[in-house]
Amino acid sequence: MKVRHAFLACAAWCLAAFAGETANTAIVPAPRDPDDGRFGGEAFLQRHREFLQVARTQPCDVLFIGDSITDMWRDAERSGIARGLRVWEKHFAPLRALNFGIGGDRTQHVLWRIREGELDAIHPKVIVLLIGSNNTGIEREGRRAGQPRNTTAEAIAGVRAVVAALRAKRPESKILLLGIFPRSEKRDAPQRTQIREINAAIAPLHDGHHVHFLDLGHVFLKPDGDIDRTLMPDATHPNENGYEAWARAIDVPLRRLLH
Questions:
Q1: In whole numbers, what is the pLDDT of the chain averaged over residues?
Q2: What secondary structure, in 3-state letters, does the chain show?
Q3: Does CATH place domain 2-258 in 3.40.50.1110?
């Protein structure tokens, strides 16, 4: 019954958007626009096709889904900075983990990927979900440059919709829902405030059985609340030390959900 309710909730959000009852882009499944960064257009579709192939050919007990922060688990280095590959190979490859992160993704893009079959061929025991960061803040490029990407309420609905879609698609999987990581160096930055509000609103999705919420934001902060640039040099993406800190922070919760 809970799965049916989750599916109906997700469907209702999407139908409302298509019917014009809301302008919330965060809940409407959509592929990436051609001009949407490194993984816009065809690059996004190619990565999606790669995931479909991986799902058909590789075993999966743990599935990571997200944006560039998840994506960079697969990189030994990006932008001249050591990233997460070596940490992944040490901590998660032995757990038969797959990485379905795409840089730049927002909740609507993950909803589209779920709808288009990325989970159809796999049955992960645990899904590690980190999404919503790119729904916050201000658009930097294009016709909407300078405008908010989504309101706080819209981004909250987007994360909830992704959780509902995952529950509907894979009701047997446990979801380790991570709070959005801090972004922007100073603790009083508007984007940091928005992220704190989103995390507070999605925390009650934790039910102790199907969905388990975990906020790791403190891992990347200094005692004064500013971002620790020894772990997040650009105040958004972890370096190798940051990925190691992330892996250690979820090691016990993840293994509990697996076993």
A1: 92
A2: CHHHHHHHHHHHHHHHHHCCCCCCHHHCCCCCCCCCCCCCCHHHHHHHHHHHHHHHHCCCCEEEEECHHHHHHHCCEECCEECCHHHHHHHCHHHCEEEEECCCCCHHHHHHHHHCCCCCCCCCCEEEEECCHHHCCECCCCCCCCCECCCHHHHHHHHHHHHHHHHHHCCCCEEEEECCCCCCCCCCCHHHHHHHHHHHHHHHHCCCCCEEEECCHHHHECCCCCECCCCCCCCCCCCHHHHHHHHHHHHHHHHHHHC
A3: yes
Domain ranges of the chain: 2-258
Rounded distance between C-alpha atoms, residue 116 and residue 125, angstroms:
20
Using the predicted structure, report yes or no on whether residue 2 has a pLDDT greater than 90. Answer: no
CB 32 within 8 A of CB 39: yes
pTM, to two decimals: 0.90
